[in-house]
Amino acid sequence: MNGTAAQEAIVRGVMDRWKTAVDAHQPQQVASIFTEDAVFQGLHPYSVGRQGVADYYDSQPIGLAADYRVLETRRLAQDVLLGYLGVDFSFTDRPAVQVTLSVVLRRLGDQWYIAHYQVSKLG
Predict the structure, then answer these.
(1) What is the 3-state secondary structure (H, E, C) of 68-89?
(2) Distant-in-sequence contacts of 94-98, Cβ < 8 A, 24+ apart
(3) pTM for the full model?
(4) How confident is the model at residue 51 (pLDDT cuts 50, 70, 90)?
């Protein structure tokens, strides 16, 4: 696997875990994918830490689902990766919301976590 393919595989591994927890409406499981001091910016005011992530996803409606596409990856340091994604959040009662998402992943031990999450709604 070349560097870019390996980076994308890492990003997909983390984001697949995120998607599974989001789709299942498991806010605490979503939060466990983030570092203890993660900066989280969804479409509401930002928070720092896992509790803010859990609160954000707990406030989301049942039936929310996320489909993502990896657009770009960059290795920022030995144990730090940037992922830039397109994400479609679908709902049971309203049109989907299309966003772009930047994540910074950090490896802690043998596991990768989201240390920074920034959503942008374009257009």
Answers:
(1) EEEEEEEEEECCEEEEEEEEEE
(2) 97/43, 97/121, 98/122
(3) 0.94
(4) very high
